[in-house]
Specification:
Distance between the termini: 88 Å
Number of helices: 12
CATH class of one domain: Alpha Beta
CATH architecture of one domain: 2-Layer Sandwich
Largest sheet: 5 strands, antiparallel
Number of strands: 23
Radius of gyration: 27 Å
CATH topology of one domain: D-amino Acid Aminotransferase, Chain A, domain 1
């Protein structure tokens, strides 16, 4: 079905909702003119435009279905709403507010409250673009909201719908709108609205053809919501790159699953912070209760968004790939599992055929996403992505993060990542760090220094001098 929308400048907001309810799932509502006379009704259990004897009885019907209502006000000749009151639970209070707004010559719409903090998302679909955020209304795309709360997730339309279907387990009902239509929507884990469906449509406006190439970017509000690692892997899977079978246990949603079977039958537990925090939290081969782990490692519930249970890969080689400040691709790793490499304990020369396979995968990903960084595992046949992040790095040669310093701390990589994290915390504003040892510039040690923006470089240890 294709929805055709012809919007006239003088069209009333409740007329638009009334028309929209014929084609889409809208929030239940009753509307009134400035004299308190009812205009439209869309309430479950009542006929279209059922006439209630009073404002109070109309509010009681809405409250009986939803428990809470909102009031929107508007003037017919103006596109934007006026006052907005959220979460009213008293029919008598609804009538009082409407009487006050009527005295100002305002039209009112009373609609069921749709909880935006229920684990769903709200956003806007326009042309080939869908943008959305959790815990917000469709206003999340407006500049003042972005300045205050951060950027929404932004995807090509088909990619967004596929990604959201993976997370929520149903296909959002947004496919059939025309490219010239701007659609404000919200998506909910529990069904809502007049039709009792997962997708609520709030507004459809014909704005003409819209040409825009969506730009993948994170962190964003949705990546923080489900966790940085989960989001990167979800994007890679949605774009059909090889990601091991992964179950995500988020704080705010039911578990969801994506990825391909690797055949190992083993489980890695990976802690998933809101934003990347290299090497700080647990990564372990073997099962751990994900919710107990979240409680143990983040009792304040401020750092960890989810836990990943990921099928392991039988590793011939493992490692990491970054792009340096000149655009060169750097591929590093070790034979077998990559724990020691990522923790900075070991690195070795990779066979050319392994580097070629990893480089080929990078080219495919970069064609879609631009410069990226990722951790990989090669099983002799497939290069699997086990972490994916956006963007090139500031590194070049043996320089991890550029800059001059009056004093450089020398840090032996054998001391480990936790010791480096403590050194970073006590490093002053005009100080730098030299990593001494055989360590990859793409390891977690390098990630830590880049994230901290501390002038830093790698030096090989002094050779041992022996005497006979």
């Amino acid at each position: 079905m294709t929805v055709t929308c012809v919007t006239q400048p003088s069209q009333f907001k409740d007329d638009v909702l009334h028309w929209l309810a014929e084609k889409a799932n809208v929030a239940q509502f009753v509307s009134f003119d400035p004299h308190g006379c009812q205009r439209h009704c869309r309430v479950q259990g009542y006929g279209v435009d059922h006439r209630f004897p009073s404002i109070t009885t109309a509010a009681e019907a809405l409250l009986g279905n939803s428990g809470s209502v909102n009031i929107r006000t508007y003037e017919p000749e103006k596109a934007k709403s006026r006052d907005f009151i959220y979460g009213i639970r008293s029919a008598r209070l609804v009538a009082t507010h409407i009487a006050a707004f009527s005295s100002q010559g305002l039209y009112t719409i009373v609609n069921e409250t749709i909880d935006v903090n229920d684990g769903g998302v709200s956003g806007v679909a326009l042309g080939n673009l869908i943008e959305f955020s959790p815990n917000d209304t469709p206003r999340c795309v407006e500049p003042e909201h972005i300045e205050k709360y951060g950027y929404p997730a932004s995807f090509p339309k088909l990619t967004a719908l596929s990604l959201l279907e993976t997370v929520y387990g149903f296909h959002p009902d947004l496919s059939h709108y025309q490219s010239s239509q701007r659609v404000e929507f919200s998506i909910h884990p529990l069904r809502k609205g007049m039709r009792n469906e997962h997708t609520i449509v709030w507004e459809v406006e014909d704005v003409g053809e819209f040409q825009h190439t969506p730009k993948f970017s994170w962190p964003n509000r949705f990546s923080r919501f489900i966790g940085d690692k989960a989001f990167g892997l979800l994007v890679a899977n949605t774009l059909r790159f090889p990601v091991p079978s992964t179950k995500v246990f988020p704080r705010s949603l039911p578990p969801f699953h994506f990825g391909l079977k690797t055949g190992s039958g083993e489980t890695w537990i990976r802690t998933c912070p809101i934003e990347q925090q290299p090497g700080r939290y647990t990564t372990k081969l073997g099962w751990i209760d994900p919710y107990l782990l979240m409680q143990q490692e983040d009792p304040e519930r401020v750092n960890i968004a989810s836990i990943l249970a990921q099928e392991g890969v039988d590793p011939q080689y493992s490692g990491s790939l970054i792009v340096d400040s000149t655009g060169n691709v750097i591929i590093e790793g070790v034979r077998g599992r990559g724990d020691a490499f990522m923790d900075g304990r070991f690195t070795e020369k990779l066979p050319p055929y392994v580097k070629t396979s990893v480089d080929r995968l990078y080219d495919e990903i970069a064609d879609v996403l631009g410069p990226v960084r990722f951790e990989w595992v090669y099983d002799g046949d497939t290069v699997w992505i086990v972490q994916l992040h956006m963007g090139a790095t500031t590194s070049f040669g043996n320089i991890i993060y550029p800059g001059d310093a009056a004093f450089f701390h020398r840090f032996a990589v054998a001391e480990g990542i936790d010791a480096l994290r403590k050194l970073i915390q006590r490093t002053g504003p005009n100080e730098g760090i030299i990593l001494v040892g055989f360590v990859g510039i793409s390891s977690h040690l390098g990630d830590l220094l880049r994230k901290a923006k501390i002038p830093s470089r790698i030096e090989a240890p002094e050779p041992l001098v022996t005497t006979n």
